[in-house]
UniProtKB/TrEMBL annotation, chain A:
Organism of provenance: Abyssobacteria bacterium (strain SURF_5)
Pfam families: Radical_SAM
Pathway connected to this protein: Protein modification; protein lipoylation via endogenous pathway; protein N(6)-(lipoyl)lysine from octanoyl-[acyl-carrier-protein]: step 2/2
UniProtKB keywords: 4Fe-4S, Cytoplasm, Iron, Iron-sulfur, Metal-binding, S-adenosyl-L-methionine, Transferase
UniProt keyword annotation of Amino-acid biosynthesis present: no
Top-level taxon: Bacteria
Subcellular location: Cytoplasm
GO biological process, one term: protein lipoylation
Cofactor note: Binds 2 [4Fe-4S] clusters per subunit. One cluster is coordinated with 3 cysteines and an exchangeable S-adenosyl-L-methionine.
Identification of the protein by name: Lipoyl synthase
Cofactor: [4Fe-4S] cluster
Enzyme Commission code: 2.8.1.8
TrEMBL record, chain B:
Entry-linked Gene3D superfamilies: 2.40.50.100
PROSITE patterns for the chain: BIOTINYL_LIPOYL (PS50968), LIPOYL (PS00189)
Keyword Transferase assigned: yes
Any GO molecular function: acetyltransferase activity
InterPro entries: 2-oxoA_DH_lipoyl-BS, 2-oxoacid_DH_E2_comp, Biotin_lipoyl, Single_hybrid_motif
Protein name: Lipoyl-binding domain-containing protein
UniProt KW keywords: Acyltransferase, Lipoyl, Transferase
Highest taxon listed in the record's lineage: Bacteria
A Pfam family of this chain: Biotin_lipoyl
Domain Lipoyl-binding: 1-77
GO cellular component: cytoplasm
Cofactor(s) required for function per UniProt: (R)-lipoate
Length: 290, 79
């Protein structure tokens, strides 16, 4: 049945891989019964990343206890915690021969520690089975729990990532159950606990934020110990999600990138298709070279 | 005959996309890696490259059609 065409500006265009070794990545993930944020959030880079053999594991089920209005991950009653998951992640990661492993999770406000111990178990399994690989965790806000942050940081990830996602003024529309200041505190706590660990955060643009607000976020992040920044275009996963207010031209992303570097971030990725985990390995390298 | 299928766009088997425009016509010679067709999803526009070389013998998805991942977009006659 023909449907009305959706129109995107010319730069919101991805090229799919001609030879999708994606099948192999998909097969490994299915065999180990693992979720990825790539699929669950309908990331437009999935074809590219899977063909390159990378993916971002999503722990603690496929159902999120929050209802952020930008995100395609399913919302509702969470799944029981599976203690075999850390091992399955490590097995899949070593089969995929990942040199940089990125793990995230749905938000689990139902768990007393928000899933922190589970993250720590995954980091430990990865360290045990893949001592050479670097590990990046992209964690939820743990409802601000310092203790949960400590549990994750002590397990020793190379990069501690928590996204602020948007500017302060848009939190009520975009992340109604989150709190901008609380997210900043999570980053600060992580940095204080382990100053040599890289701390990373990111935001989506195109939700109606003003450029001055984006610069405010950059300043706040730096003041809270953040080393790495990612900025990407918000893309609406379905007509039920928040609309895109603006498709920023690539030059705007470059400008944000320049501003952020000048302000003092050690590594910045800013482009329309940048996602928090996109090219994470290269971004981490850049940060480490400074 | 080689079947060019819609590759994975990220959301598994239930994923679908709309054909927005073909870059070639039936009878055209295709080189491996040429962008064959442009598709759109809710999130973005995607170019689907040809995994093989050959003659585009039949286009099976018209502009405006909704295609699921894995469905055949076109047939390539391999020389
Ligand atoms: S950018 Fe991140 S979420 Fe998107 S496909 Fe790549 S690894 Fe997955």
């Amino acid at each position: 049945m023909p449907q009305p065409q959706r129109k995107f500006p010319p730069w919101i265009k991805k090229r799919l891989p001609a030879h999708p070794q994606a099948d192999r990545t998909r097969d490994i993930l299915a065999r180990h019964r693992l979720n990825t944020v790539c699929r669950s959030a309908q990331c437009p880079n999935t074809g590219e990343c899977f063909a390159r053999g990378t993916a971002t594991f999503m722990l603690l089920g496929n159902t999120c206890t929050r209802s952020c209005r930008f995100c395609a991950v399913e919302k509702g009653a969470p799944e029981p915690l599976d203690v075999s998951e850390p091992e399955r992640v490590a097995l899949a990661a070593s089969e995929m021969k990942l040199s940089h492993v990125v793990v995230t999770s749905v938000t689990r406000d139902d768990l007393p520690d928000g899933g922190a111990a589970h993250f720590a178990a995954v980091i430990r399994e990865l360290r045990a089975r893949m001592p050479e690989a670097t590990v990046e965790v992209l964690v939820p806000d743990f409802q601000g729990s310092r203790e949960s942050v400590r549990v994750v940081v002590e397990a020793g990830p190379d990069v501690f990532n928590h996204n602020v996602e948007t500017v302060w003024s848009l939190y009520p529309q975009v992340r109604p159950q989150a709190d901008y200041r609380r997210s900043l505190r999570i980053l600060k706590t992580a940095k204080e606990l382990k100053p040599q660990m890289l701390v990373k955060s990111g935001l989506m643009v195109g939700l109606g934020e003003r450029p001055e607000e984006v610069e405010e976020v950059m300043k706040d992040l730096l003041q809270h110990g953040c080393d790495i920044l990612t900025i990407g275009q918000y893309l609406r996963p379905s007509p039920q999600h928040l609309p895109v207010v603006e498709f920023l031209e690539p030059s705007h992303f470059e400008r944000y990138g320049e501003i952020a570097r000048r302000m003092g971030f050690r590594a910045v990725a800013s482009a329309p298709f940048v996602r928090s985990s996109y090219n994470a390995k290269a971004v981490q390298k850049e940060a480490n070279s400074k | 005959m080689f079947e060019v299928k819609l590759p994975d766009l990220g959301d598994g088997a239930g994923d679908e996309a709309i054909v927005s425009s073909w870059h070639f016509e039936e009878g055209d010679e295709i080189t491996e890696g040429d962008d064959l067709v442009e598709m759109t999803t809710d999130k973005a526009t995607f170019n689907v490259p040809s995994p093989r070389r050959g003659i585009l013998s039949e286009i099976l998805a018209e502009e405006g059609d909704v295609i699921k991942v894995g469905e055949v977009l076109a047939l390539l006659e391999e020389e």
